[in-house]
Amino acid sequence: MPEFTAKEEQFSQLKDVLQSPVVMLQFADSASTMLKARQLLKTSERCCIIANTSTSNQKLKNIKTLYHSLATLKKLQRQFSHEYPLATANLIGIYPSLDYPACVYELHTSADHYVSGNILPYDQSNLTRMIRYVIGKLLGANPAVGGLGLVLSKD
């Protein structure tokens, strides 16, 4: 039980920014994550499923984590939209980390384009910029983000 309380405190800034409770994505058991989100939606109008994408210092491992996080969140987004047709489910990017979210924005919108061009780290090397751009286009999220989320709102 103290471990759960520590996790709640760990994401207190993110909860304040999102103005909703958060659930950490469990890759091995996304069904339990969705169950926790449904329970939160019974008592709250909104909740957010979050995933940490910057888990190590190895860039390839982080890209793999980004891909798995985005794929799982998109799957949960489709499932939620199917179960609750009148509700909304939006993907968000969190930068620089889940612990200290300086920027939270909705993916695949003009905000995403603005944040990618003006807020996220800028590389001097043309090759590095091109690689980051291609990875972002292939995966659907900029690889510089520290976390992803799925904001669920019941109307």
Overview of the structural elements:
The structure is a single chain. This protein has 155 residues and is an alpha+beta fold. The protein has one domain. Helix content is 50%, strand content 21%. The protein has helices spanning 2-10, 12-18, 30-43, 59-83, 110-118, 126-139, and strands at 22-24, 46-52, 88-96, 101-106, 147-153. Strands 1-2-5-3-4 form a 5-stranded mixed β-sheet, sandwiched between helices. β3 (88-96) and β4 (101-106) form a beta hairpin. The chain is globular. The N and C termini lie far apart (32 Å). The model is unreliable at 1-6 (pLDDT under 50).
Mean of residue pLDDT values: 89
Specify the oligomeric state: single chain
List low-confidence stretches.
1-6
Total strands: 5
Element string (H = helix, E = strand):
HHEHEHEEHHE
Estimated helix fraction: 40-55%
Please identify the structural class as seen in this structure. Answer: alpha+beta
Describe the biggest sheet? 5 strands, mixed
End-to-end gap: 32 Å
Give the neighbour order of strands across the main sheet: 1-2-5-3-4
Alpha plus pi helix count: 6
Q: Please give the domain count.
A: 1
Classify the beta-strand content into a percent band. 15-25%
Gross morphology is: globular
Question: Which helices and strands, and how do they pair?
Answer:
Blueprint (H helix, E strand, L loop, with lengths): L1 H9 L1 H7 L3 E3 L5 H14 L2 E7 L6 H25 L4 E9 L4 E6 L3 H9 L7 H14 L7 E7 L2
Parallel strand pairs: 1-2
Antiparallel strand pairs: 2-5, 3-4, 3-5
Keywords:
disordered N terminus; 155 residues; globular
Summarize the structure.
The chain has 155 residues and is α+β, with helices and mostly antiparallel strands.
